[in-house]
Write a structure and sequence with these properties.
The structure holds two protein chains of two kinds. Chain A is an all-alpha fold. A two-stranded antiparallel sheet of chain A has the order 1-2. In chain A, strands 3-4 form a two-stranded antiparallel sheet. Chain A is elongated, with a radius of gyration of 31 Å. Chain A has helices at residues 2-16, 18-25, 41-60, 70-79, 84-111, 120-143, 147-160, 167-175, 182-214, 231-242, 246-250, 252-272, 294-305, 311-332, 344-366, 375-378, 391-402, 405-408, 431-440, 454-464, 490-501, and strands at 29-31, 243-245, 410-411, 414-415. Helix content of chain B is 26%, strand content 29%. Chain B has two helices and ten strands, in the order ααββββββββββ. Chain B has helices spanning 2-15, 18-51, and strands at residues 62-68, 76-83, 96-103, 109-113, 124-126, 131-133, 140-142, 147-149, 158-164, 167-172. The N and C termini of chain B lie far apart (63 Å). At the A-B interface, α7, α8, α9 and α18 of A face β3 of B.
Chain lengths: 502, 182
């Protein structure tokens, strides 16, 4: 019986040449030094991609790519389809792992100088794969067709709409029509399920073929320089001297890492569960504050912190500049030192980029630039800011709430962070300055002159003037010193407020 | 390797009679020509199909009733919604488009798009302080739609309106963006 099976296996192998193919690919010679823990991230990314294909196919069996049904089919997956929640969670965590491990891979090959001669195309195809993966992350976020997806598309359209001349056409192309609707989802479904994965499979094939033809990067040694004239010969000499077949001699750590990645995805999926969907994609439900997924938080931060007058220019050029630099890396530094120990600029660049991404991500997590839209009804300022205040000052507190000042300004840590915190504003602005700021606004604050009557302004400013710590006195107006005696009474403050208001 | 193979092919070709060569060359050229013609017939409709959504002119916009005038009290700003005129049967709730209707005195109106002019997030009206505020980056607009503060580069997008038979009609159907404001 076993003889029989062996014969069948040998027959198949003879006709389709599996073992020859295997020997020529997995069995290719690599430098012994490349069997390192640092070299596991590429195969780790590939394993994530396979998980994404597998879980993606499963999800597509149930998911309905229709603007009307998508949300319900996601809910069905979460709550009714057996283990549907788990597959959604695996797909979500698979994408998180894929982006994270891909970034680790990119940092490793960058720091190990793997992009240098003669592996420029390996790096370039890798950059294309990075862009495709981010494309998958964005389109995947759209397929989770909820409020965030809807308004995320709106943000995309608003950015595309800034392109001169071509703007409207690009927006129509992106949305598949005049508004975000059924055709938009179909479009992103097609990209996410057919176009981009197909591209990824093609480019991964190229990427791996280049690893075979140009060889895996040899472990960098400080002082061993890459020279175009000698590199290939040196590499081949090293393969002869100290080469091992990738399978089975150098693949061990990759296999262990792949196992850990798979277990990590399964564990995170089981423990954290699926993501969303959050709120039906109904634009008339306007009480929403859209936020992108984790991968694009940094971009959200960048968009929010850009100077307003440079915004359009940066939005339309920065992506091309950044992508251009990524493509240019192997040509900016084509030969020479490979080891990170001798490439301080490379190391500092990586540190700088990740610090910047970290800061933007951190900022975007708390989004201090977003007003707290419901603070005026849901938050109340700490009671110690009300103690010992006169009726007029307490009236000012009511104005502070009812006119939504608290949506942007915080007192005692309660309220929005869009505008400056006002917990000790009396030490910065005089009564007159406060009145002017409230009535005329400035910078990022609207003018409230038309919408507050004089008594409301008086009450509000009276309250503002009490906002200082017990050890500090309110700021004085040196032009009118007699009105700003430190020990002045409440009545004085009010009188001053009234006067300066007139 | 490859070059060697090519050379063997070449030398084989040299041995075949010239007339045979000419015939093969002709057949190859004919094949290319046929496929070229086919490619035109395939790609024109395919490209046309894909690129048709580049069109920005079309039956997208029209007049849509928002309701009787009485549903919009004077000196107030109310959220109204309409079904987008250009819609597909599977659009579901996404084709329900909200807008802010401000009625001034008499039959004077302003109808604003929901989308902030900065990045398209839905602006909210605050009756108490008479401002529109955007939840994304804190853009603010006054009750007449003009820019009050924050990053938006212009005031709110404003739809055209008209009044017919006691009904308020809005001229909508297009997601407003900076290069195509309503």
């Amino acid at each position: 019986m076993i003889e029989r099976l062996r014969d069948i296996a040998l027959w198949i192998d003879d006709r389709v040449h599996i073992s020859k193919l295997f020997a020529a690919t997995a069995g290719h010679m690599v430098p012994r030094t490349s069997g390192s823990w640092f070299y596991v991230f590429g195969s780790g990314t590939l394993v994530c991609f396979m998980i994404q294909i597998l879980t993606g196919i499963c999800l597509a069996l149930v998911y309905v790519p229709s603007a009307d049904e998508a949300y319900r089919s996601l809910e069905y997956l979460n709550y009714q389809q057996q283990l549907g929640w788990f597959l959604r969670a695996m797909h979500n965590w698979g994408s998180n792992f894929m982006v994270a491990i891909m970034l680790a891979h990119m940092v490793q090959v960058f720091l190990f100088g793997a992009f240098k001669y003669p592996r420029e195309m390996t790096w370039i195809s890798g950059v294309v794969l990075l862009l495709c993966t981010l494309g998958m992350a964005f389109t995947g976020q759209v397929l989770r067709f909820d409020q965030d997806a809807y308004w995320g598309l709106g943000i995309g359209a608003a950015m595309a709409g800034r392109v001169p001349l071509m703007g409207p056409a690009i927006v129509h192309m992106m949305l598949g029509g005049p508004i975000i609707a059924g055709e938009t989802l179909s479009r992103f479904f097609t990209l996410h399920v057919f176009v981009i994965p197909g591209t990824i499979i093609a480019i991964v094939s190229l990427h791996l073929r280049l690893v075979l033809t140009k060889g895996i990067n040899d472990y960098p040694v400080p002082g061993k320089l890459v020279k175009k004239e000698t590199y290939v010969a040196e590499y081949e000499a090293e393969l002869k001297r100290d080469g091992v077949p990738f399978f089975p001699k150098a693949i061990g750590k990759d296999v262990i890492f792949s196992g850990l990645v798979l277990l990590g995805i399964v564990f995170c999926a089981a423990y954290f569960g699926p993501e969303g969907p959050r709120g039906i994609p109904d634009p008339t439900q306007i009480n929403t504050a859209p936020k992108p997924d984790f991968f694009f938080l940094w971009l959200y931060g960048v968009l929010s912190l850009m100077p307003a007058d440079l915004e359009t220019v940066l939005m339309l050029t920065a992506p091309f500049i950044v992508i251009g630099i990524l493509f240019a890396v192997p040509f900016i530094s084509n030969t020479g030192e490979k080891s990170a120990r001798r490439r301080p600029v490379a190391v500092l660049s990586v540190l700088f980029i990740f610090m910047a991404l970290g800061v933007f991500n951190y900022q975007a997590t708390f989004a201090p630039w977003s007003p707290k839209m419901d603070a005026w009804t849901s938050a109340s300022i700490p009671v110690n800011y009300l103690e010992g205040r006169s009726p007029l000052e307490r009236q000012g507190v009511l104005v502070f709430h009812s006119k939504q000042c608290i949506n942007c300004h915080s007192i005692g840590g309660v309220g929005g962070l869009r505008g400056p915190a006002l917990g000790n504003v009396a030490t910065r602005l005089t009564g007159g300055q406060l009145v002017r700021q409230v009535i005329q606004g400035s910078g990022n604050m609207p003018a409230y002159g038309k919408n507050l009557n004089p008594s409301e302004v008086a009450a509000l400013v009276a309250f503002m003037r009490t906002l200082h710590s017990p050890t500090e006195s309110p700021v004085r107006d040196s032009a009118q010193p007699e009105q700003a005696a430190p020990e002045k009474t409440q009545a004085n403050t009010l009188a001053q407020t009234e006067r300066s208001h007139q | 390797m490859v070059i060697k193979e090519l050379e063997t092919i070449k030398s084989e070709q040299a041995e075949t009679p010239r007339i045979e060569m000419a015939r093969r060359g002709f057949l190859l050229k004919l094949g290319f020509l046929l496929n070229g013609i086919a490619a035109v017939f395939v790609s024109v409709p395919v490209l046309g199909y894909v690129l048709s959504s580049f069109r920005t002119e079309g039956p997208f916009k029209s007049w849509i009733a928002l309701g009787p005038l009485e549903s919009f009290p004077e000196n107030q700003t109310r959220l109204a919604k309409y079904r987008n005129p250009y819609t597909r049967p599977w659009d579901g709730p996404t084709a329900d488009i909200p807008c802010w209707v401000r009625r001034m005195v008499g039959e004077k109106f302003q109808i604003f798009a929901i989308n902030c002019t900065h990045l398209g997030c839905p602006v909210r009206w605050f009756q108490e302080s008479h401002v529109f505020m955007c939840p994304c980056h804190g853009g603010a607009f006054y009750e007449d739609g003009s820019h009050a503060s924050g990053p938006p580069p212009r005031g709110l997008y404003e739809y055209k309106y008209k009044i017919e038979n006691g009904q308020l009609l809005v001229h909508g159907g297009q997601l407003p963006t900076l290069s195509q404001p309503v």
